[in-house]
Amino acid sequence: MPFRVPGAPRWRVVLASLLLALAPAPPALAAAQGPVERPAAPAVDAPLGRPKGAAIASANAQATDAGMAVLRAGGNAFDAAVAVSAALGLVEPESSGLGGGGFFLLRRASDGKVVFVDARERAPLAATRDMYLDPATGEPRPRQTIDGALAAAIPGLPAGLVHVSATYGRMPLGEALAPVIRLAERGWRFGDKNIAMMGWRKDVLRDDPGASALFLIDGEVPAAGTRMRNRDYADVLRRLAAEGHDGFYRGPVAQRLVDGVRAAGGIWTLEDLAQYRVVERAPLVFTHRGQAVVTAPPPSSGGVALAATLQILDGYDWANESPVDRLHLRTEAMRRAYRDRAIFLGDPDFVDVPVELLTHPAYAAGLRASISTERATPSALLPGVTRSERPDTTHFSIVDAEGNIAAVTQTVNLPYGNAMVVPGTGFLLNNEMDDFSVKPGVPNAFGLVGEDANAIAPGKRPLSSMTPTIVLGPERVSVVGTPGGSRIISMVIQGLLALDAGASAAEAVAEPRVHHQYLPDHVSIEPGALDAATRAALEARGHVVKEEPRTWGNMQVVLWHRGDGRVEAGADPRWKTVGKGSTDEGGIFR
Ligand code: GLY
Hints:
Elements: H1 10-22, H2 25-31, E1 55-58, H3 61-72, H4 77-91, E2 101-107, E3 114-119, H5 157-168, H6 173-186, E4 188-189, H7 192-207, H8 209-215, E5 227-228, H9 231-243, H10 246-249, H11 251-263, H12 270-275, E6 279-281, E7 284-288, E8 291-295, H13 302-313, H14 323-344, H15 355-358, H16 361-369, E9 394-399, E10 405-411, E11 469-472, E12 476-480, H17 487-500, H18 505-510, E13 514-515, E14 523-525, H19 532-540, E15 545-547, E16 556-561, E17 567-571, E18 580-583
Parallel strand pairs: 14-15
Antiparallel strand pairs: 1-9, 1-18, 2-3, 2-10, 3-6, 4-5, 7-8, 8-11, 9-10, 11-12, 12-16, 13-14, 16-17
Helix pairs in contact: 1-2, 1-16, 3-4, 3-6, 4-5, 4-6, 6-9, 13-14, 13-16, 13-17
């Protein structure tokens, strides 16, 4: 279907959008203001009916089982989300946990309310813009945003658990956390993914007495199947259950954390913890092929880039494009969407983020107008800046038998976070400070000053790529997300396009991945992702294709077929036997 903006003369849209697409972005944004109306956001609160049962997909079978146990005990999807979140923090400590943060994207069946619970970490109040720069050289000090106490931002996940439970759950927090407390006390099984990720971080974990005592055995990586007990983790969960927010953010846990962080050279204060609050934000909602896409607003960059990319692609006759044309167009769309992230996006409580403009169909039309269907546009011709975030992170998706939905992505940033455990707490701290622009305001090769929006400031949330997403379609509801740093966005795009084409949950998570993020200017592919002919066809259009040595991501998808109520859960097969998608095929939770 040709692109159309209601009420806007076509020439004006194209002219404004061309300017937007081709000129350095900040001044050009102003050119689009005024005449172009925004189509009404799609309705997201219309009743969807009921699924036949529940489904959970997460990156760890022990976490999926904890969520299923909570549903079986009478909890709803939000209680189950609390259980899965806390369980992942225990059994997948390399990816997320109580010392980190996350985003809970929820849809409540009773009234169709959608909400984005932002439990992202915040910079400590004593943080400063240049805190990681060496005063002598003006350059970032190596590893200070990665290892140890100074790298850690103030955790948000515990507040997220309390808030989601109290506001949207059905059972007391203690009941939702009960399976996780049991698992922590009886012991969980160390697995292949725990081991693989530890390879990167073993030496730093060994240097920290708390982390070494909790995760290593005689300074070495535990063998697969080793039973890991964590009574401190169980104690912290009990405190959360008994005292709510204050159980973590005030009192003995807070005191212990602040003492431990400061003794190790960090800058946390009791005030930092006492002040921490989640923020409920309106999700970003846009239309894509007759479906309402509900996704992450800032401080995630993911939803904005997702909206731009899919709306660019919606202007093509996608069903009739060849596979190579689709890959080319997807790459070109991502190139443009990723370009904008670093310039404009940051914590919306601190900077004005032009979300309306960046997600406007007319803006997407402008970007589309700059795409040649025959040739790759060198990124060097699209002035901008880029940013990469490093992987780890984790995602899970839930639908319950009433139709409540949770899409949750949570993180401690790099594998095993900052590799520091304050003794007596049972969890790693994050290194989310690395997601800020450590040295903003330095002009890039085009003279553009990038990443100011994501400069460090006291109490500010670092920009994220986490993109939990719910698609409400006439035939299916899809719940999608993945870890993977800056590649999260391209994976979610690819997953949604696969689902549009009718993929099952298992097929969507398994699809070989292709990524482009503006700079570096190459198409990254997973090993064997493209056959020789497809690769050659892309190269003939000017794309540089780079086959990476490893796969990436860990996507977890749940589908609900609205016609017959069937549910599906697909766990990424890249970590065989670790993740698990479960459905209650017998309908035991109805
Ligand atoms: N730390 C990964 C992210 O927030 O995107």
